[in-house]
Design goal:
single chain, Rossmann fold, 2 domains, 8 strands, about 20% strand
Length: about 260
Amino acid sequence: MSDQFDPELFQTKLYLSPEKDELFETGPWPKPFVFNEDVVRVFDDMISRSVPLYREVLACAAHWARDYYQPGSKIIDIGCSTGTFLELLGRFLKQPATLVGIDNSQPMLEKARQKLTQIQQIHQIELICDRAENCSFENSSVVVINYTLQFLPLQVRQKLLRAIYQGLNRGGLLFLSEKVKSSSPQFQETITRHYEAFKAHNGYAKTEIERKKEALENVLVPLTEAQQISMLQESGFSHIDSPIKLHNFISLVALK
């Protein structure tokens, strides 16, 4: 386990595609929201402008992954999208490793494959186009799920977390980032107001914010922090903590 804090991880630029997210400028998005080719094209810009501390979360995940990686095992990124986290991790993980990206969107994986070309000189890269609940997590020491579990039906979330726990090696780590909701209606109203101000500061018009919110209704279903922790505990994880939280976004670490 590494005990080295690497400040460069938090200062380096992410490998993000330059296409700007303007999908919701002209009118409502067809329901339900799906990760089609139009979304994939602007996804990097969309998520970096929509998730508070996005770069810091990926850097934090890379630090934890590097600390808990067990040589000869796998590091798995569920919902790897365009490969931004794996590319960052691959640059800063000095020892060769097997890095696995899982996503059910082939266009996402095509983008990821392009991003990961350079780090293939050091690491073995496996990209799997499938639903996470259909995949194996055997011989993994680190599993990362950033902003993916929230899109799955509740019963599938619990099933997936149990499968991850069972597949992780002893001493293995789950790094989970999710959008959450407050159990207090008053706090939720305040958090929503702050979050929408954050998106407006990042260049989204009020109409864009409202249209995307409508498109994601019943597609992205957040839990409370307590509910999220309870699901982890029911899956077998006993040591759970939160390294990052801002507005309605939280990152959790859970140890097997």
